Amino acid sequence: MSSLRVALNRRFVTGVVSRPSVGYVLPVWRSIGSQVRRYASQVTPKRNGTSTFKLALIGAGLGAASGTVYSIYGNWKDKSSHMEHQRIPPKILKELPDVRITKRFVNPNDNSDLNIILFQYQTCPFCCKVRAFLDYMGISYSVVEVDAVLRQDIKWSEQKKVPMILVQQGDGRYIQMTDSSAIISLLASYLNDKQTDVGDLAKFYPMISFFDDNDKKRLDILNKYFLMYQDKTPKHITRDTQEDERKWRTWADSHLVHLISPNCYRTLSEARETFEWFSKAGEWDIYFPKWERDLMVNVGAFAMWGISKMLKRRHGLSDDVRSHIYEALNKWTKELEKRKQKFMGGDRPNLADLSVFGVLNSMEGCEAFGDCMKNTKIGEWYNGVKKLVDKNRGNLVRRAELMPLAA
């Protein structure tokens, strides 16, 4: 709990506890006051309004009172608001919520035994990361396409962010996981050791609370870039390769992804063009009524155009936002050239490759993507990863009523 909150709470508690003693203190002050008035000069009080000093006292009193009330309300509303390093395990659902499966990718060669439902926005960079991993690994999964404006398909969940997955564990219950990097790390850990239940592995990725530099409580997933090999680390994996993979996965999340919105929504017309592409790529005209599709395009484009300006300032980008994404992509390709490798994982993509690919894949149909292909050397690497992802992806199954895989 912050020192300010502690001080306010102590002030409130002290005021309540010491109230009975006022009856004994008050006569003393009256006695002193009468002696002072005997020697004090006579002052004629002003009758034309309240003094500035009195207004200041009133303002200070109201400020202190409102601060105390707000502190009490905050503590009442969030019982754990003062707790740091609080661990919150992934939520377990006893039964599947009433969700609308929009499509399913089924790979006949999938031997993972995983039953996964992915809640997503088709062109969200973080959702694209998860899909790139699932497709490259040849995993079958169901998809719930969420309305980015109304979000009706996740109204059952306390977590309102995508991507989100529900994955069935051994006892039939469903684990709810959020955060793209944590989802990928969990599933990659399971694929390395299928003898360990995915529910047991999920316990390594709890949500943990901390306070940022502004003393605001934040939540993040612990270990989200770590794979839980335990005593079954593959022979070709070393500590150095793990650290390198984590470094570039972190770079994709902490830097590259923040360049997408300022570039895709650079102008209002470009923002609308981008959302029209989103509608086409996400098949919104199939999964949503026309009024809802138009709402998503028009409201979404205008909102993201405004948000992109805020993100540009937050991340210290110049007006020439294209130069920043060119610089980032050149950094990636120069590293590949330095290593003389086709992929960051060597002869085949690793999780860093799939993360960077997923982020870029989110803007494939946008003007910004075409500019990146023309003005950087990213195309050869990108198309190489895309070829493998498309090759391993399961067959698309789409029908009006889809039931979960286990049903």
UniProtKB/TrEMBL annotation:
GO biological process, one term: prostaglandin biosynthetic process
The encoding gene: PGES2
GO molecular function: prostaglandin-E synthase activity
Keywords carried by this UniProt record: Lipid metabolism
Function field: Has a glutathione-disulfide oxidoreductase activity in the presence of NADPH and glutathione reductase. Reduces low molecular weight disulfides and proteins.
GO cellular component terms listed in the entry, alphabetical order: mitochondrion
A Pfam family this chain is assigned to: Glutaredoxin
Taxonomic superkingdom: Eukaryota
Species in which this protein is naturally found: Ceratitis capitata (Mediterranean fruit fly)
UniProt domain Glutaredoxin: residue ranges: 116-167
Entry's family note: Belongs to the GST superfamily.
Stated name of the protein: Prostaglandin E synthase 2
